[in-house]
Design brief:
Layout: H1 7-28, E1 39-46, E2 60-67, H2 70-104, E3 117-121, E4 123-129, E5 132-138, E6 150-153, E7 157-165, E8 169-174, E9 181-186, E10 191-199, E11 202-206, E12 220-223, E13 235-241, E14 247-251, E15 261-265, E16 268-272
Parallel strand pairs: 3-16
Antiparallel strand pairs: 1-2, 4-5, 5-8, 6-7, 6-15, 7-8, 9-10, 9-12, 10-11, 12-13, 13-14, 15-16
């Protein structure tokens, strides 16, 4: 049986053919990438059917189009993609923390089993002036930084202690700053002592009665156990000679570029890792 296709039906047939090609292309390209997604697109000319699209007409083009759960599958795939990206970010952060924890465990004297390490924050600014310099450390809302905690670095030395705590940053008083004072230990003489900052990058070491302690060049002062703000075995200063060949105490560590530092709190350590720009 032959029948004519009207112009409007030719237009509709052409449109449906192009539409099916577009859907096929999309299915091949990322939009439908779930195993559960499927579709069928077909178009054909049928004879007299009075109950379909154009009721009462003899001939018409009929299109059958089915996409199985297109929207739900698409949304599901988008959600899975976001979850995967988030999981990859967490995986990267955990890997970073593991590397930092391994570095922190190289601190001398803090190999105890009850020591803990946490990522807290980073140094973001250092200022310096004659006889006094301090560091500003960014503070996270969930960090456990407190005034009096010691700041240490990954080159096995005490750098300073937290002097001021504000909403977004903490001020660190460095070892050589005037006002820094800490109970320490001198292994050469097997005695406890006090390290005081005297400015201009130097410290002085006195015994508990206030008398100067005489040591030989190369002697090192360590943190003492009875100081609640420190752990045993962390170096603080070393006896050396200045430009005039005079014996003086120089802090073993001061802030410098790319220095990794941490915060000591009792027998816990909150690592504060970052670069100084």
């Amino acid at each position: 049986m032959h029948f004519k296709i009207r112009y409007d039906e030719k237009f509709l047939a052409c449109f449906l053919f192009l539409f099916s090609l577009a859907l096929f292309f999309l299915q091949k390209n990322t939009f439908l990438y779930s195993n559960n997604s499927s579709y069928v697109v077909s178009f054909y000319i049928v004879g007299p059917v009075n109950t379909l699209i154009e009721k009462g007409k003899d001939n018409f083009v009929y299109c059958h189009y089915c996409v199985k759960n297109f929207l739900s599958v698409f949304r599901h795939n988008v959600a899975l993609t976001k979850e995967l990206q988030q999981a990859n970010r967490y995986k990267f952060q955990v890997r970073q923390l593991s590397q930092e924890n391994r570095m922190l465990r190289h601190f001398a004297g803090i190999m105890e089993q009850d020591s803990a390490y946490y990522l807290a924050s980073k140094i973001f600014f250092v200022t310096s002036s004659s006889g006094h310099h301090c560091a500003l450390i960014s503070v996270d809302s969930d960090s456990s930084i407190a005034i009096g905690q010691l700041v240490v670095d990954l080159q096995h030395a005490v750098v300073g202690k937290v002097e001021g705590l504000y909403k977004h940053y903490a001020v660190v008083l460095l070892v050589s700053d005037i006002g820094f004072k800490m109970i320490s230990y001198l292994p050469d003489l097997q005695c406890e002592c006090v390290v005081e900052g005297c400015g201009n990058g130097y410290v002085k070491v006195i015994d508990k009665t206030g008398k100067d302690i005489q040591c030989v060049e190369g002697s090192v002062v360590f943190s003492a156990k009875d100081n609640s703000n420190s752990l045993s075995g962390i170096p603080i200063a070393q006896l050396t000679r200045d430009s005039y060949n005079n014996l003086c105490w120089k802090p073993i560590a001061n802030f410098s570029t790319n220095r990794l530092v941490g915060i000591l709190q009792n027998n816990k350590m909150s690592s504060m890792l970052g670069n100084i720009d």
